[in-house]
From TrEMBL:
<dbReference type="GO" id="GO:0016829">
    <property type="term" value="F:lyase activity"/>
</dbReference>
<keyword id="KW-0963">Cytoplasm</keyword>
<keyword id="KW-0350">Heme biosynthesis</keyword>
<protein>
    <recommendedName>
        <fullName>Coproporphyrin III ferrochelatase</fullName>
        <ecNumber>4.99.1.9</ecNumber>
    </recommendedName>
</protein>
<dbReference type="InterPro" id="IPR033659">
    <property type="entry name" value="Ferrochelatase_N"/>
</dbReference>
<feature type="binding site">
    <location>
        <position position="57"/>
    </location>
    <ligand>
        <name>Fe-coproporphyrin III</name>
    </ligand>
</feature>
<comment type="similarity">
    <text>Belongs to the ferrochelatase family.</text>
</comment>
<dbReference type="InterPro" id="IPR001015">
    <property type="entry name" value="Ferrochelatase"/>
</dbReference>
<keyword id="KW-0456">Lyase</keyword>
<keyword id="KW-0627">Porphyrin biosynthesis</keyword>
<feature type="binding site">
    <location>
        <position position="279"/>
    </location>
    <ligand>
        <name>Fe(2+)</name>
    </ligand>
</feature>
<dbReference type="InterPro" id="IPR033644">
    <property type="entry name" value="Ferrochelatase_C"/>
</dbReference>
<feature type="binding site">
    <location>
        <position position="189"/>
    </location>
    <ligand>
        <name>Fe(2+)</name>
    </ligand>
</feature>
<comment type="pathway">
    <text>Porphyrin-containing compound metabolism; protoheme biosynthesis.</text>
</comment>
<comment type="function">
    <text>Involved in coproporphyrin-dependent heme b biosynthesis. Catalyzes the insertion of ferrous iron into coproporphyrin III to form Fe-coproporphyrin III.</text>
</comment>
<keyword id="KW-0479">Metal-binding</keyword>
<dbReference type="Pfam" id="PF00762">
    <property type="entry name" value="Ferrochelatase"/>
</dbReference>
Length: 364
């Protein structure tokens, strides 16, 4: 593949956003949960997670690092392309960034979202955010840059290989006498079951995609260690009203169960997340680690992809792949595991909005 990025003249990093100081926490939570029926007690509890870390989420700094790494990677490959960054829930907001892109004369940008899987929250909602940002440009969507969302990358080798190495490193942290019997707990964000059922073009995409990668990482770990560790997909960060069912088991309940079953140790592998943001440093490193400690269950947590050079290079690969597709060329799409590489444009009914039909970009 050549380093031809045409028809793109910019890359846009799209992320969730997070608060940076204590005064930001409540307005940030209001942005996230506007119109979503999250109980007040849950918001107060989550606010406390942020206050425990000084009112500052790590996510924006992680995106700044990722941006710097991306720019370096592109420059190193001889690609001269401006890289922008915009968030759904906090400054820099996508609407401001897309306005700036329009003012800078950007015509067509490839968008990389810091969320690897299908679901309303992790895909269509970002597509709605992209539409709203384009629509907020003077003159509306017609005058805004064309925004193409790059395909899901949960099964891109640049995302999976760092997870394998991180799992091996976490296993190595466990005491020698419990390592071989350790279970792997692959962790991702819980979502409402109705949202999970509607995810992806055929439904159940969220769980199916995670399960595929959990199996692939487990198999690659076996190839390295000669051990087939038992594994399960479990969930963190359940929100919403208690009467609405969300994906289970919760990681803490899972740890209790492992302990009750006599499992000697566990490695938590947060395959649902691309960096060590609040869900990871609070829900796993703080809360789930406390559960493991209380149980006397040796536990280690695998690192997320973060700025691993292979993950950063995966963004370049996805950009060049999509650019070639848009130029009408044949491309080989990198993918590992038992699912094929994902589609470029989401199907019409993919990951429906549970509340309202809002316009979204980057669909068929
Ligand atoms: C699938 C998924 C991902 C992974 C994909 C992706 O990355 O997009 C994700 C990531 C994140 N979620 C984050 C934070 C929050 N998520 C919330 C609430 C919710 N998340 C949901 C789903 C997801 N969330 C859902 C269905 C809700 C209920 C409300 C709604 O229907 O939207 C709430 C409200 C309080 C609460 O109820 O927990 C907060 C504060 C942060 C920032 C962390 C930081 O600050 O470091 C990140 C990266
Ligand atoms: Fe979330």
């Amino acid at each position: 593949m050549t380093a031809d990025v045409s028809p793109y003249d910019a890359l846009l990093l799209v992320s969730f956003g997070g608060p940076e100081k204590p005064e930001d926490v409540v307005p940030f939570l209001e942005n996230v949960t506007r119109g979503r029926g999250i109980p007040r007690e849950r918001l107060e509890e989550v606010g406390e997670h942020y206050f425990l870390f000084g009112g500052r989420s790590p996510i924006n700094d992680q995106n700044r690092e990722f941006l710097a790494a991306l720019r370096e990677d592109l420059a190193g490959a001889g690609i001269d392309l401006p890289v922008y960054w915009g968030n759904r829930n906090w400054d820099p907001y996508l609407t401001d960034t897309v306005r700036q892109m329009a003012a800078d004369g950007v015509r067509r940008a490839a968008c990389f979202v810091t969320s690897a899987y299908s679901s309303y929250s992790s895909c269509r909602q970002y597509r709605e955010n992209l539409f709203a940002a384009a629509d907020a440009v003077d003159g509306g969507v017609e005058n805004a840059p064309v925004l193409d969302k790059l395909r899901h990358y949960f099964n891109h080798p640049g995302f999976v290989e760092p997870a394998v190495d991180a799992t091996l490193a976490a296993l190595a942290e466990l005491p020698d006498d419990v390592r071989d019997g350790a279970h792997l707990a692959f962790v991702t964000h819980s979502i409402p079951i109705s949202m999970a059922e509607g995810s992806g073009p055929e439904g159940d995409g969220y769980v199916t995609q995670h399960e595929s990668i959990a199996r692939e990482v487990t198999e690659r770990v076996r190839q390295e260690t000669g051990r087939r560790h038992r594994q399960a997909l479990v969930y963190c960060s359940r929100s919403g009203a208690p009467h609405i069912p969300w994906l289970e088991p919760d990681v803490n309940d899972h740890l209790e169960q492992l302990h009750a079953d006599g499992v000697p140790a566990v490695v938590m592998v947060p395959i649902g997340f691309v960096s060590d943001h609040m869900e990871v440093v609070y829900d796993l490193d703080t809360e789930a680690m406390a559960t493991a400690e209380k149980l006397g269950l040796p536990a280690a947590r695998a690192a997320t992809a973060g700025v691993d050079p292979r993950f950063v290079a995966a963004v370049r690969d996805l950009l060049l792949e999509r650019a070639a597709v848009e130029r009408g060329e044949d491309v080989a799409r990198a993918a590992v595991g038992d699912l094929p590489a994902c589609w470029d444009r989401c199907a019409v009914g993919c990951c429906p909005n549970p509340r309202a039909d809002r316009p979204a970009l980057a669909g068929a």
